[in-house]
Amino acid sequence: MIDETLKKYGSIVANHPFLILGIAILVTIAALIGASSLGMKEEGMEERLPQDIEVISTMNFVKDEFSGGINPGNIVIELDPILSNSSEIRDVRDTKIIEYADILAKKAEKLEDIQSASSIADLLRENDHLPRSERRIRSKLDSLPQTTEYISDDYSMTLIRLDLMPDADNEEVYYQLCKIIEETPKPLGVKAQPSGSFAVIASLKQQIKPDMRKTSVFSILGILAIIFLFVFRSLKHGITSLMAIVFGVLWAFGLVGILGMNLSSVTAGAASMMMGIGIDFGIQVVSRFRQELMRFGYMEAVINTISGVTVPMAVTTLAALIGFRAMSLGRLTFLADLATMMSLGVLCCMLSAITIIPALLVIWEKYFGKG
Question: Looking at residue 240, what is its pLDDT?
Fold first, then answer.
């Protein structure tokens, strides 16, 4: 029964390769639309653990009770002298740095996602004015215990303490603060930058997509080189087998987007893993077709190929799905997300291998002859 069904499907592919290819392209377009909705998941270490673990529950309770759900962050202002014997500032208690910190804090506090911002200037302000005497500044700071919350022991760094709203867009806050810092004139020999969990998350999200592109390109080029040099020694068949992972990965990420999942630092490398596993499907189909082509014409060869490799590939896929789904049985949520993406990836690579590759092989042989 299964063999007869596969032979009928193989016959359809052999006689109507452009129809199969057209359907696959429509699916790919839908997948691209789904993949366009993929976002970057903002996650800290606590989001990677089950929320009912005692330490996580306690941390959330303390955060809500003692900070009102506020998400803290900082702007770090530190000395960065260029010349050793210059007149550049050597102590953050300098009036220019205090004024600079005050300006940055006031600008930051105007942002929608920032609830409050405080700096060393708030400790020094008297009747809404800052002292102009450095002796007065140092004397007052030495007498205040809060000084250590804003200034380092060696006086080379000072903080602007930020309280972000609980639902703040970390990435947007980071870019807005960077813009404020860039547009605000600063004293010579001083640099400033956002810091804190929101800045780490924004920087991480900024790196995920470029890293995915880089690893994906390297994976494809490496796989193609191995296939061409050691497996088929044919650029045509090498590229054809590669279509299993190209379309398979696109379909998988389209499904991920349609399901409303987002990428994270953990799942960002899933594409390369999908390619490493999925290429086997493409190699199996092309290798079997080349063997069948030695004895039969391309039409019978593609029918025998589909009927011969589909069941073993399906069993391999099922075994992989069981293995990946077993990852989701644990309590670590990020493993469950990775398992879902890998399961979709392997399944889509297998489906693309038995649809797109046979159609391409028929088109190659029918219209371009052997080679």
Answer: 86
Question: Residue 183 corresponds to which tokens in the numbers above?
Answer: 């547009």
Total domains present in the chain: 2
Q: Are both 244 and 141 inside the same structural domain? A: no
- The token pair at 65 is 């009770």
In terms of DSSP bridges, do strands 71-79 and 190-195 run parallel, antiparallel, or are they unpaired?
A: antiparallel
Distance (Å, whole) CA 51 – CA 335: 15
Integer Cα distance of 227 and 210 in angstroms: 26
Please report which confidence band the pLDDT of residue 371 belongs to, taking 50, 70 and 90 as the band edges.
very low
In this structure, are 22 and 137 located in the same domain? no
For residue 190, give both structure tokens.
């001083």
Based on the domain organization, do 146 and 76 belong to the same domain?
yes
Q: Does residue 157 belong to any structural domain of this protein?
A: yes
Mean pLDDT of the region 358-369? 84
SS3 content of the chain, % helix, strand, coil (to 5): 65, 10, 25
H/E element, 161: strand 157-164
CB 357 within 8 A of CB 244: yes
Evaluated on CA atoms 48, 49, 50, 51, the torsion sign reads: negative
What three-state secondary structure class fits 75? strand
153 and 265 belong to one structural domain: no
Question: What CATH number does residue 12 fall under?
Answer: 1.20.1640.10
pLDDT, tens digit, 9 for 90 and up, residues 244-265 = 888 998 999 888 888 887 776 6
Condensed to tens digits (0 to 9), the pLDDT of residues 56-106 reads 454 455 455 444 445 678 888 888 776 565 666 777 778 888 888 888 988
Output Rg (C-alpha) for the chain, integer angstroms.
30
Whether 350 has a pLDDT exceeding 90, the answer reads: yes
Residue 303's closest CA among 92, 4, 11? 11
Whether 251 is covered by a domain: the verdict is yes
C-alpha dist (Å) from residue 122 to 79, 91, 141, 236: 20, 18, 11, 70
What gap in Å lies between CA 253 and CA 36, rounded to an integer?
Answer: 9
Q: Which residues contact 186 (CB under 8 A, 6 or more apart)?
A: 100, 192
Supply the pTM of this predicted model: 0.63
- Tell whether 56 is covered by a domain: no
* Domain range enclosing 293: 2-42+232-368
Q: In this structure, are 237 and 363 located in the same domain?
A: yes
Contacts of 300 (CB under 8 A, 6+ apart): 14, 292
